[in-house]
Design goal:
14% strand; three-stranded antiparallel sheet; 48% helix
Length: 339
């Protein structure tokens, strides 16, 4: 397929997606386009045609959140390259395949994931907690870090810190620090580590919403626009943060989410994960605060739950040296609060 870098940007919509793929030479005949949830940062359209099922993704320059969040759409170049690397490293089928990229439009086309999957987020929010899925998520991440650590080629390819700075540090850590100056020193310590501990390929959004899970336990990974060469603690911390937030949201199922947290962490370590537990725990604490007071708060916590997360994360940031056991105790206190 072709790659354009000098033409005007083409806006992809549900109405234009099929024609766009025809113009790119990917399909020829009739097709049906369906909008997909692109989160806050992309236009994502599924197109079904005789040639197959495809997904077109186009990066937005300003994200769809309450506070203004600008994010260079050139991040999509990094995302596309990250998918190609993952396709070489991870088991077949773990990520969709890139079939075309249109750099002038900040867009690319990929194969559609197999039917029958749901986001792991939807399962977790429904109280369905499969430890095998958590373990697979840990295995994939540990294997990724083991395979990429020490690669001079990948370090050079993913050296641009723009995705980290614009996609995470500014909207998460620095925004939280502006809201809570008393936590500034602790948050700055995390920022310093993220900027200086650069050892592995980091996906940057290793979240249940970006994992399609299937009845047989298969996991397909999606969304890599925050990919960068960086700190091995970030991705496991990001995933654990979401499991803890689900436990706060559904305290009746908190023990199940904690079992998933441990299954994920154990599988991550066994598979070659390189992060130190202390670094992960510090990052989880910072991310918990960011997911209530950063630019992209989670969409399922009510006011009481948000207040609880805010209070607990500020307490741990003030203590200065949390462990994963300390993080787990957050859910115990939430259970006690709701008993």
């Amino acid at each position: 397929m072709s790659t354009d870098t000098g033409n005007a940007r083409t806006e992809v919509t549900v109405a234009t997606a099929a024609d766009y793929l025809r113009a790119r030479g990917i399909i020829r005949g009739a097709a049906t386009a369906t909008p997909l949830a692109g989160g806050i940062s992309n236009i994502v359209v599924s197109v079904d045609a005789v040639e197959g099922a495809f997904v077109v993704k186009q990066a937005l320059p300003v994200l769809r959140v309450a506070q203004r969040w600008e994010f260079d759409p050139a991040r999509i170049f990094t995302e596309r390259r990250c998918m190609q690397v993952l396709g070489e490293i991870l088991p077949a089928g773990s990520v969709p395949l890139v079939v075309d990229h249109d750099d002038a439009s900040f867009a690319f086309t990929m194969t559609s994931a197999p039917s029958g999957g749901v986001t792991w987020k939807s399962e977790l929010l429904g109280g369905v907690v499969r430890l095998a899925v958590a373990a697979t998520a840990g295995e994939l991440l540990g294997s990724l870090q083991f395979a990429t650590a020490g690669s001079d080629m990948l370090a050079a390819e993913f050296a641009d810190t723009m995705p980290l700075e614009q996609g995470r540090i500014e909207p998460y850590h620095l925004t939280s620090a502006a809201v809570h100056p008393q936590a500034g020193v602790a948050l700055e310590r995390d920022v310093r580590r993220l900027r200086t501990d650069r050892r592995v390929l980091v996906l940057g959004d290793y979240s249940p919403k970006n994992m399609l899970v299937y009845p047989d336990g298969e996991v397909v990974l999606l969304d890599f626009e925050v990919a960068h060469w960086g700190d091995p603690a970030f991705d496991p911390a990001f995933l654990i943060t979401h499991l803890i937030l689900k436990a706060v949201h559904r305290p009746v199922d908190a023990d199940d989410y904690l079992q998933a947290r441990r299954a994920f962490w154990d599988a991550y370590l066994i598979s070659g994960g390189l992060a130190a537990e202390s670094d992960v725990a510090h990052e989880v604490t910072a991310l918990l605060l960011a997911r209530v007071d950063g630019k992209s708060p989670v969409d399922y916590l009510d006011h009481d739950a948000s207040q609880f997360v805010r209070r607990e994360s500020l307490r741990l940031l003030a203590d200065g040296a949390p462990s994963l056991a300390d993080i787990d105790e957050i859910t115990t206190r939430r259970q006690e609060q709701n008993s």
